[in-house]
Amino acid sequence: MQGSQAPNEHETVGAYALGILDDAEATAFEAHLAGCEWCAQQLDELAGMEPMLAALADLPGTGSTPAIGESLSAKPSPRLVEKLVDEVSERRALKRRKGFYLVAAAAALIIGGPLTVMAVNGGGDSGQTATPLAATAQTTFDQLPDKISGTDSTTGASATVAMGEKDWGTSAVLQLKGVKGPLKCSLIAVGKHGDRQTLGSWSVPDEGYGIPDAKADKAKKPLYIGGGTALKPNEIDHFEVMTFDGKKLVEVHA
């Protein structure tokens, strides 16, 4: 019977990565590896396969999983080696594809601007829907039944808070105009007994929000910020828009 053909050097990279070549075979492959860029790349791709040696524990003749660096008492078949190599290669390729998709998604957000930011709603794999976050706050503001407004003649800021009672408290969306930055602000609900609860916080850019004579169109538009408080609507005395350094921009009485 004709003897089996010696494996091609390129096909030996998986067995070398698994550490199952004998000394002569390993020496021969290393000599080939020194001048083969393809095998060097494949070996780099297969780096870290040692933990998969545990999968060989069920082979006949292996009583337990060998420690890393120890030789196996029985060599796996070429088919098993090929299967392990293919599995690791596919997993690494999948990881690279996922990384590419994340980079592409991040680039899309940067190019598209804030209106393209998507929120995923829904519980299962099917039935998930994508909703623009910027549109959601304004839509909710329009839909909430109760609206109260206030203006500060000193700061020039004006605010309208739309509210809706919930089982857990109050859902609210702030519409803010006449504010220039740079600022960092918070919307605070103040209860009739003096307790204060922060519904949300945000940053105001230099050009601001809701500035009628602004050069940039986006600065002419008001800011919409949604939030919630454990206070019921009838427990709220007023709302305050405060800067992080303690300055009150505008107060809205409930």
Mean pLDDT across all amino acids: 73
Helix content: 25-40%
Query: Which structural class do you get from the secondary structure elements?
Result: alpha+beta
Low-confidence stretches: 1-7, 56-75, 103-134
Termini, distance in Å?
96 Å
CATH architecture identity of the largest domain: Sandwich
CATH domain fold name of the largest domain: Immunoglobulin-like
From the alpha carbons, calculate the radius of gyration and give it in angstroms. 32 Å
Query: Given this structure, which CATH class of the largest domain is correct?
Result: Mainly Beta
> Into how many domains do the coordinates divide?
2
Main sheet record: 4 strands, antiparallel
Number of strands: 10
**SSE order, as H and E?**
HHHHEEHEEEEEHEEE
The spatial strand order of the largest sheet comes to 3-4-5-8
Shape: elongated
Amount of beta strand: 25-35%
**Discrete helix count:** 6
Structure description:
The protein is α+β, with helices and mostly antiparallel strands. The chain has 2 domains: 9-108, no CATH class; 143-253, Immunoglobulin-like (Sandwich). Helix content is 30%, strand content 28%. The chain has 6 helices and 10 strands; from the N terminus they run ααααββαβββββαβββ. The protein has helices spanning 13-18, 23-33, 37-45, 78-112, 133-143, 217-220, and strands at residues 118-121, 129-132, 146-151, 158-166, 169-177, 183-191, 196-204, 223-229, 236-243, 248-253. The strands form 3 sheets. Strands 3-4-5-8 form a 4-stranded antiparallel beta sheet, covered by helices on one side. It is elongated, with a radius of gyration of 32 Å. Residues 1-7, 56-75 and 103-134 have low confidence and may be disordered.
